């Protein structure tokens, strides 16, 4: 999980991620405008489709609408006549109206108390307990109701009522009965090719008429939306599952304002394409595709024009940093002018650095050869001086003079040993002190005149020293060993020499030998040796400790290891 977060964080800082962000910010306003405009077009198309559907169902139900409108108009006219003419002429007026109109089978006046006091049939009847009466009185306005097995006619009728008032006082209402078969017959014309089905309901959601009869209505009306809720969807189109289980498209529009509604039902195949759910998806998908295309082109261009060239440049820089100097010059294929400038600058830099390194390497080789030659010549000269001193010593008559010359000759040979060691390690600025100590021990032992010669055991650790410390160390060791060999003691016990590093910054030289190792030899020569040891210690900036134990002397020299340039 942590690795994923690290990779995500690294990618978020990449050039590609920033290009995606910038392209998103650039395209976002255009995308929002495109979505807004597309949605506006879709809304307009849906409004037109809704208007078209409403107009279609109004056209399909135009005959029924005309029938009900005429009935309402007739009821209004009769209400005025009845209010003015009084009860005497009421029966004659209503009878004449029904006889002159085949559409109606009954016309009557119902008082506020629910009494049918006047009718085209001359009957008097108490209707106060009928739901139709209560509905008409409660609304106090024109109503259209469906009455199965009406109380007066005994037939299925559509009842149209209109209040009758005189001087602002409601006297009752005029009721006109239209056979339900006539109303349904208006809807039973040839079925439209798009599968439209119609239903007529009143403002309370009661079914008045339907295509193919009331019994067929539940099959094409919404199953999950009650008829009483349909008036709440006035002037709307929507999808819902019909009673038959089929998903259909529905539209609700008023037939008679606040009185009768029309409900249209179509199969999904009749729905206009511009009103489908995919339109919203397309409205969003197109700007998204535009963004994807823009980001894709930007990333492709960035990859081709920048990233791949930067990757080649980075790879060349890495190889150059790792020491590859034989690689061909960097060549960026079809790079922009700015990156070509970077390419030329890198190639020029690589050329200058390579030439400089080649010159320094050649200078180093020349200096190495010169340094080796210097050490070789110094070694040879010191050996020549030692040989000349040896020749000179042969002509000396005094033992003391010969001894002095021998001491000088030994010291010259010690310096020659150091230069021989430097000559053998020309590529390093330091000397392996262990090898130098071993060489000094070997030289002192080979040129010693003490017989029998005691054993010299060495325990040496590799320690690198600069010549400034290697020279006094080798001379100090040679002087000390010479002192030990000149006075080996009676037991001829072995002499032990040790060299080790103490921590990271100090070096320890230890010598175990005869008891006379700690003191100067008798005579002037011993004083010279002590002075030289003191001088060598000062050069090493070290300390010397001596311990006498069981007739043996333990001498320890400790000094700090010098750093370069110190």
Automatic annotation (TrEMBL):
This is histidine kinase. One of its GO terms (cellular component) is membrane. It comes from the Bacteria. Its EC number is 2.7.13.3. The chain crosses the membrane at residues 20-42. Pfam families: HisKA_2. It comes from Maliponia aquimaris. It catalyses: ATP + protein L-histidine = ADP + protein N-phospho-L-histidine. InterPro entries: HAMP_dom, Sig_transdc_His_kin_sub2_dim/P.
């Amino acid at each position: 999980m942590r690795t994923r977060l690290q990779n995500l964080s690294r990618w978020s800082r990449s050039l590609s991620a920033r290009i995606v962000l910038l392209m998103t910010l650039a395209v976002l306003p255009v995308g929002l405008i495109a979505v807004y405009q597309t949605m506006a077009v879709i809304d307009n198309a849906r409004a037109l489709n809704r208007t078209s559907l409403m107009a279609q169902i109004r056209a399909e139900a135009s005959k029924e609408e005309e029938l009900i409108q005429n009935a309402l108009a007739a009821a209004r006219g009769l209400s005025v006549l009845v209010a003015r003419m009084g009860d005497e002429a009421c029966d004659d007026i209503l009878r004449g109206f029904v006889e002159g109109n085949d559409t109606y089978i009954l016309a009557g006046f119902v008082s506020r108390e629910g009494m049918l006091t006047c009718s085209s049939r001359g009957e008097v009847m108490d209707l106060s307990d009928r739901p139709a009466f209560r509905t008409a009185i409660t609304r106090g306005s024109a109503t259209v109701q469906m009455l199965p097995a009406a109380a007066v006619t005994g037939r299925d009728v559509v009842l149209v009522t209109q209040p009758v008032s005189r001087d602002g006082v409601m006297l009752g209402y005029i009721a006109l009965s239209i056979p339900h078969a006539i109303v349904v017959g208006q809807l039973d014309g040839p079925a439209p090719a798009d599968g439209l089905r119609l239903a007529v309901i009143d403002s309370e959601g009661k079914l008045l008429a339907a295509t193919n009869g009331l019994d067929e209505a539940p099959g094409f009306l919404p199953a999950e939306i009650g008829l009483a809720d349909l008036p709440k969807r006035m002037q709307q189109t929507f999808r819902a599952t019909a009673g038959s289980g089929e998903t259909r498209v529905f539209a609700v529009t008023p037939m008679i304002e606040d009185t009768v509604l029309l409900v249209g039902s179509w199969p999904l195949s009749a729905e206009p394409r511009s009103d489908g759910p995919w339109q919203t998806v397309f409205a969003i998908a197109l700007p998204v595709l535009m963004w994807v295309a823009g980001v894709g082109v930007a990333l492709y261009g960035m990859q081709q024009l920048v990233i791949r060239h930067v990757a080649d440049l980075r790879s060349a820089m890495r190889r150059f940093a790792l020491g590859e100097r034989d690689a061909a010059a960097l060549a960026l294929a079809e790079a922009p002018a700015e990156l070509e400038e970077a390419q030329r600058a890198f190639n020029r830099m690589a050329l200058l650095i390579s030439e400089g390194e080649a010159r320094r390497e050649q200078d180093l080789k020349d200096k190495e050869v010169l340094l080796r030659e210097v050490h070789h010549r110094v070694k040879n000269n010191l050996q020549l001086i030692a040989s000349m001193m040896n020749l000179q010593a042969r002509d000396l008559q005094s033992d003391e003079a010969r001894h002095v010359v021998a001491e000088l000759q030994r010291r010259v040979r010690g310096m020659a040993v150091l230069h021989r060691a430097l000559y053998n390690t020309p590529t390093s600025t330091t000397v392996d002190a262990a090898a130098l100590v071993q060489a000094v021990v070997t030289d002192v032992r080979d040129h010693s005149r003490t017989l029998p010669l005691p054993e010299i055991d060495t325990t040496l650790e590799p320690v690198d020293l600069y010549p400034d410390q290697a020279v006094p160390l080798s001379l100090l060791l040679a002087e000390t060993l010479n002192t030990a060999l000149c006075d080996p003691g009676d037991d001829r016990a072995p002499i032990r020499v040790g060299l080790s590093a103490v921590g990271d910054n100090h070096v320890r030289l230890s010598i175990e030998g005869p008891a006379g190792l700690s003191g100067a030899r008798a005579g002037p020569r011993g004083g010279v040796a002590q002075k030289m040891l003191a001088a060598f210690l000062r050069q090493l900036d070290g300390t010397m400790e001596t311990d006498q134990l069981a007739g043996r002397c333990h001498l320890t020299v400790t000094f700090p290891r010098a750093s370069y340039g110190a």
